[in-house]
Amino acid sequence: MVTIDGLTFEEYYNVAGSGEGLGNDGLFQAAATGYAVPLGTDIFHSYYAPADIVEAAGTLGQPMYARQWLSPDGKSAHLEAQSNVLSICTRPRAIIKCTA
Questions:
Q1: What are the angstrom distances between the C-alpha of 39 and each of 53, 66, 94, 95?
Q2: With contact defined as beta carbons under 8 Å apart, do 67 and 8 qualify?
Q3: What is the pLDDT of residues 17-37, one digit of tens each?
Q4: Distance separating alpha carbons of residues 1 and 74, to the nearest angstrom
Q5: For the chain, what percent of residues have pLDDT higher than 70?
Q6: Fewest beta carbons less than 10 Å away: which of 28, 72, 81, 83?
Q7: How many CA atoms lie within 13 A of 81 on its CB side?
Q8: 56 neighbors 66 (Cβ within 8 angstroms)
Q9: Is the CB of residue 85 less than 8 Å from the CB of residue 47?
Q10: Domain range summary for the chain, segments of one domain joined by +
């Protein structure tokens, strides 16, 4: 990590499968590329949607939903948890792609 003129640069190392860089799933960045993301700003937001269950219909979304119910034979309990979050960047042009 290096800080120059108030900007902090941090290198992120990633390895996917048998090599580094861009994996088969496309989730990792290719070598010699990166993104400059402004920190300390209010440009990233997360919004929650209600769960896809009857009890949550027509309500405001919560960060997490969990519920349980007994099996018909009464010998076990079923558990379910879900979170329906949409995270967005409200100013996508503030994120700059960098290449070496």
A1: 36, 32, 10, 10
A2: no
A3: 544 444 445 555 566 777 888
A4: 56
A5: 79
A6: 72
A7: 2
A8: no
A9: yes
A10: 40-90
